[in-house]
Amino acid sequence: MAMKFSTEDFKERIKENIGDDFMRKAVAGAQERLHTRRLDAAEELGNWEEWRSHGEEIRQHVLENLDYYLHQLSENVASRGGHVFFAKTGEEASRYIKEVIQKKEGKKVVKSKSMVTEEIHLNACLEEAGCEVIETDLGEYILQVDDHDPPSHIVAPALHKNKEQIRDVFAQKLDYDRTSKPEELAMHAREMLRKEFLTADIGITGCNFAIAETGSVTLVTNEGNARLVSALPKTQITVMGMERIVPSFEEFEVLVSLLTRSAVGQKLTSYVTALTGPQGEGDVDGPEDFHLVIVDNGRSRILGTEFQSVLQCIRCAACVNVCPVYRHIGGHSYGSIYSGPIGAVLSPLLGGYDDFKELPYASTLCAACTDACPVKIPLHELLHKHRQVIVEKEGRAPVSEKLAMKAFGLGAASNPLYQMGSKVASTVMKPLTKNDRISKGPGPLKAWTELREFPAPEKERFRDWFTHHQKEKGDGKS
Amino acid sequence: MKVSLFVTCLVDMFQANVGKDMVEVLERFGCELTFPQGQVCCGQPAYNSGYVEESKAAMKNMIQTFEEAEYVVTPSGSCATMFKEYPRIFKGDSEWEPRAEKLAGKTYEFTEFLVEVLQVEATGAKLEGKATYHPSCHMTRLLGVKDAPMKLLNEVEGLELITLPNAHNCCGFGGTFSVKMGPISEQMVDEKVASAELTGADYLIGADCGCLMNIKGRMERKGKPVRVMHIAEVLNSR
Ligand code: SF4
């Protein structure tokens, strides 16, 4: 699966990333900045909960009627002279795109940011076919220059790098000799990219939302690069996940308001672009040829299941930005291009449990993600659902855990068993207890006491104390 | 007012003093308390690990145990949340769903019960020193109890409250997460401990026994001087 970029074991990845101080500082800093900005932006809008509910309704409505809107979108793109290709798999999508480029004898491809093209591994496919592919989103560009370092965040793909590291990458690969000031770095990237824009023959963009009623695709960016990608090259190919549709511009407005506020705490981003088909008569710019590639790649399998709500996602990364686990392990630990809570829910669905079965456990179910999600996806419940599926349907839980849980089931349900166990606990644990604490526990306590002290069981349980207490009170009364 | 105590398995076995303090506070405000002896555990450890079927027996036991109760009060936001989840878990089960519904409707977290039901904010507690409060995740986000603890703490004589930096971040407990994902849990709890230290507080206060056991255990292991207290202990200080 192309979403996956690491063959390393999950535990190894965590260890490595926890040791990366630069990354952790960068992530913690970004989380804190974005946290306040997002809350302020929501407050400034007012009635945030109503907006969220409205966003949720729109997304649910689209998913319930997805075939209708896909049909409408396709008709409208076609009626304006665009081509629509529906790809069942990632391979099919990449193959189609490659063929379009080959037919045009295209050599140079400029791309704006798109997670779905990462998902289907498009760049590698095009490069194999002899194309030069250039990422034009600043973050993506940095990663590309740095030998295709994988993205660690769905909105800010190079979040794990600080400016000094970026300067070093540029110095090494691009003969950059200026400072690590963000403006200078960005300026340099712009200079490099400008040449590419002018000589590219193919532009590939992602799509934030496609508008079924008009057949338009919309792009929300802060850099404006997506505009150039779609305006300069003669052929434009837009790639979208099949669920990224809204009925009309009216619903689009609601979702863009939620998206920009949740993603970066802005009322609006610098550029919101809507493109409708190829260049028409009288248009001053735009492509001569327009292709819309709609990618399924496992999404239709999620429709109609208990995981359907994950398809409501508008990829704002608010859940990532509040996640206390992501905060410490960073995006690369997830081993999927989709990281954070949304990644932990989505990756096993699109990529399978073989590669991603640990991800649903990399959460305390603290629900910060659910709270932040602008379209009200119950992320922590979906993480829990995954656990249930892994245990009950997939039968992948370790035997020792299964036995322990069976024992728990018996003990916790049966009062006599619990009564007996809890009564003798203090005596049993006595040899291990010092100063009312256990510092080195056996069996299931071992993992706990590797990090923390564990309290010694009470000599007198609460329930026994309470019985005496009631009796004393009764005696006092009489 | 008749109140049935649901003290949680952690309090029963490991933190009996939290239960005792809760009893004394509630009695002071005229509650008539009972402790239904059938109670064991709300089922959360198995449930959260994905063992839904295994955990149902524990839940049914709790539903039966508290069937006659008028109010159910617990010193743990997370366990109260679990009771509130029962109707969703038994959805479609004609026998258990309505019974779960009834239990969820009469269950209150301790501070919520004091403020919302008993309408008490000033408990007459006295505790000298600086304190910081950790809002636990399930209690604030899922149960929606955010203000009650602060209202109560603000009335404690001698207590100076200092805001905990990044208070909203989870402490890294997460039930079995704390042992399954040890290395991540360690980073999370370490940051919580460091934040608490940064405030210069004498006490770190919380309203969830699991989270407090995690933070306290880590503080003790690292030899930190901050004292970890359950809010019931604070409200019963005088
Ligand atoms: S799951 Fe929700 S919060 Fe996370 S990226 Fe998607 S829309 Fe944003």
Automatic annotation (TrEMBL), chain A:
Entry keyword set: 4Fe-4S, Electron transport, Iron, Iron-sulfur, Metal-binding, Repeat, Transport
SUPFAM superfamilies: alpha-helical ferredoxin, NagB/RpiA/CoA transferase-like
A Pfam family annotated for this UniProt entry: LUD_dom
LUD domain: residues covered: 71-295
UniProt-annotated binding residues for [4Fe-4S] cluster 1: 313, 316, 319, 373
Domain named Lactate utilization protein B C-terminal: residues: 384-470
GO molecular function: 4 iron, 4 sulfur cluster binding; metal ion binding
Domain 4Fe-4S ferredoxin-type: 310-377
Annotated function: Is involved in L-lactate degradation and allows cells to grow with lactate as the sole carbon source. Has probably a role as an electron transporter during oxidation of L-lactate.
NCBIfam families: LutB/LldF family L-lactate oxidation iron-sulfur protein
Family from the record: Belongs to the LutB/YkgF family.
Protein name: Lactate utilization protein B
Automatic annotation (TrEMBL), chain B:
GO cellular component labels: cytosol
One GO BP annotation of this record: lactate metabolic process
Residue ranges of domain Cysteine-rich in the record: 3-84, 132-216
GO MF annotations, alphabetized: oxidoreductase activity
Family, as annotated: Belongs to the LutA/YkgE family.
Described function: Is involved in L-lactate degradation and allows cells to grow with lactate as the sole carbon source.
Full protein name: Lactate utilization protein A
Classification of source organism: Bacteria, Bacillati, Bacillota, Bacilli, Bacillales
